[in-house]
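Quick one, tokens below. Sequence please?
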């Protein structure tokens, strides 16, 4: 086909997908082309604006390395990550809701035992977490692999501290026969997502703030159950309604209770303030396929 114009080009591109023998890929590519072209027609995208966008995407890729994932950040701040999470998480009633993964997860952090302190020297006020992993009937799940990660009092993850060689405020614990997972860490605080790259520029140019409400991340795997990737947010945070990555769900608000010293959950008597958090994670059964 020649003499293509703005009205005929979309179908011309879609016709070229005739030879694609992967039906899902063909469906996705067809829809992508349709929506991309409609978007360009809708805003009357100029050549120079498209070049600016290509420079932005190039810079986004160039900002990525083994510790920094600017494309995930872009997807998160555009709400695309949370949209995919929301579409895939029609869990049974009572199961804990999922939220965004974020870019700071590590698959093999240090392993700890019940009651251990996972902070590794991270800055922050002490927090004692008593979690439980149960199924939708309330039955404890033993041996669940619980991967935890969070930012410190400066609002930074360990991987963002360039001088750090070890891990801080992250680790893996396994639930005991009561489904219990108890550990000490530091109180999470609200923090801005990294703004020193193209995504930060995008947020600035569009008048958006970069803040996430305080939270601790959890990824929980147990045999026979759906993997749960979620956070527990501080219910008193100022950014709950305007989370930059749209990840807050009311069911994920936790009560981080402040204690002005006294007997801590680990049996010690503390002469300084500490916090406690109790939270139950309810896993959904694997759907038989
Ligand atoms: C996080 O919670 O770690 C996170 C999520 C999305 C973007 C940036 C950070
Ligand atoms: Fe986070």
């Amino acid at each position: 086909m020649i003499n293509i114009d703005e009205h005929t080009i979309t179908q011309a591109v879609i016709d070229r997908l005739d030879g694609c023998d992967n039906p899902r890929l063909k469906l996705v590519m067809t829809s992508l082309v349709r929506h991309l072209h409609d978007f360009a027609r809708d805003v009357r995208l100029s050549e120079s604006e498209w070049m600016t966008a290509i420079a932005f995407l190039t810079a986004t890729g160039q900002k990525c390395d083994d510790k920094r994932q600017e494309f995930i950040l872009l997807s998160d701040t555009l709400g695309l990550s949370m949209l995919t999470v929301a579409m895939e998480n029609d869990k049974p009633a009572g199961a804990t809701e999922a939220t965004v993964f974020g870019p700071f997860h590590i698959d093999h952090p240090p392993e700890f035992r019940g009651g251990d302190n996972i902070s590794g020297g991270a800055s922050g006020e002490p927090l004692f977490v008593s979690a439980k992993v149960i199924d939708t009937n309330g039955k404890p799940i033993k041996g669940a692999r619980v991967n935890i990660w969070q930012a410190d009092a400066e609002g930074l993850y360990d991987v963002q501290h360039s001088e750090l060689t070890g891990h801080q405020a992250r680790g893996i614990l396994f639930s005991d026969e009561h489904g219990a997972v108890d550990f000490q860490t530091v109180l999470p605080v609200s923090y801005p997502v990294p703004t020193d790259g193209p995504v930060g520029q995008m947020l600035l140019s569009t008048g958006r703030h970069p803040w996430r409400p305080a939270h601790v991340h959890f990824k929980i795997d147990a045999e026979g159950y759906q993997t749960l990737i979620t956070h527990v947010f501080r219910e008193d945070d100022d950014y709950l309604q305007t989370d930059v990555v749209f990840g807050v769900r009311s069911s994920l608000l936790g009560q981080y209770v402040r204690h002005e010293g006294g007997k801590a959950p680990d049996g010690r008597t503390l002469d300084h303030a500490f916090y406690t958090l109790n939270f139950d994670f309810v896993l959904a059964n694997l759907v038989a396929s």
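Residues 70-288 form a domain with the Protocatechuate 3,4-Dioxygenase, subunit A fold (CATH 2.60.130.10). Residues 73, 76, 100, 102-104, 193, 212, 245 surround benzoic acid (ligand 1) (CB under 6 Å).
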